[in-house]
Amino acid sequence: MYLKGFLLFLSLFLSTQLLSQDVIMNREFSITNDNDFYLLNDSDRYYSNGLIFHYRWSPERISTIDSTKRILSVGAAHRIFTPQDLLLFDFNDYHRPYAGLLSSEFSYSEYKTKSTRRLLGLEIGVTGSASGGQGFQEWYHNAVGFPAPRGWEYQIPSEFIVNLKGALNRQFILNPGSIDVISSTELSLGTGFTHALQRLDLRIGKLQSLRNSAFTNALIGQGSDQTPRHNYIFLGYGLQYVAHNITIDGSIWNDDAVHTETSQPWVRHLRLGFASSSNKATFKLTYNWSSPEVSNIGRHAYISLELLLRFSPKG
Questions:
Q1: What parts of the chain have a pLDDT lower than 50?
Q2: Per-domain residue ranges of the chain
Q3: Fold for the domain defined by 2-311
């Protein structure tokens, strides 16, 4: 199923690789799948699966004096987290709890200059059986003939969560058009996730300014009719301070969860990938690695596949 999904991603992407038609694209739809199965190492643990959808649009500029580019986004995500082995009987042996998360989000991004992006966002969601994590994984394992996971009865209980998000991205050009470094500062504060992240990404390839780049999904709105096909590889390193993660620590309001762990306060993140964009589509593939999120457990890695399709309501 996952390999078929990957091939579908590629076929859709290649079918949309059309030459620029000098048309402003101000709408975009994206689908992302995160899974450690793509590593082909028989791994299914920790952050087990993520399916994320986004719809973005860029309002038409009202004033010719104001050159700020603005992008609005709404999205929905379904994520599943599991212990290191789905067949363990005793929840005391789990490295991390079972947890499902179903969420939606709204964000606003603005680009006042070519090299800077600011983002504000709101995420709301639900954990526990209401998230559908247990139902989906049990259905999928039954459908493909995998052993049934044990332990979902000990999952993080159902709870409504609200998170506020902010991000600041800055582009530093090392060699115009071919090498740059992107600094990303991200904050999250809420009942589900409270953390801060600082990351640097080195990009090499045929590059565009941050304002018109796939790096921050900014290939719609102003400048999209003049942005040529471009692609690049990237290597990133980030350090994250974690104050609370509901999928590990449980609720901030109570201790109703049967099994929780304690989040590591500092987590390191590495990523390596590539992005390729035409006027109408972008495909990204990213290898993600993180240091242990809980003490005395192993590191974790997964692959992220993302397909973005752009269009203009004017044809």
A1: 17-21
A2: 2-311
A3: Lipocalin (2.40.128)
